[in-house]
Amino acid sequence: MVYITTSDLDEAKFIGRTLVKERLIACANIFPITSIYHWEGLQENEEVVVLLKTTTDKLKKIEQRVKELHSYEIPCIISFAIDGYKDYLNWIKREVK
User: What letter does residue 95 receive in the DSSP assignment?
Assistant: First the structure.
């Protein structure tokens, strides 16, 4: 699973749709958040999170593509291992090429 934040819904959909079309991910879940962080001072902004469902062998390629597609100078790209319903995890494996 890869967690990224984006500036707005359009960017989130663009990145998610691109990665699904390229078969790097099986699915993108998109939802709004409020982020509070330091970047040239204290910031509080509305952003959009995208959860990218994929396999571990695609992580480096996803990181590369997100950096190419993203508007941020340093985008948030965090990956973590997942476990869950085996049929669903197998579906992810089948969809990712």
Answer: H
77-79 and 27-38: which strand pairing?
unpaired
What percent of the chain lies above the pLDDT cut of 90? 97
Q: Where residue 64 sits, what CATH number does that domain have?
A: 3.30.70.120
Number of C-alpha atoms within 13 angstroms, CB side, residue 15? 32
Identify whether the C-beta of residue 76 lies closer than 8 Å to the C-beta of residue 3.
yes
Query: pTM above the 0.90 mark?
Result: yes
Phi, psi of 68 (to 5 degrees): -70, -35
Residues 12, 3: contact at Cβ < 8 Å?
A: no
Q: How many domains does the chain have?
A: 1
Specify the DSSP class assigned to residue 29. Answer: E
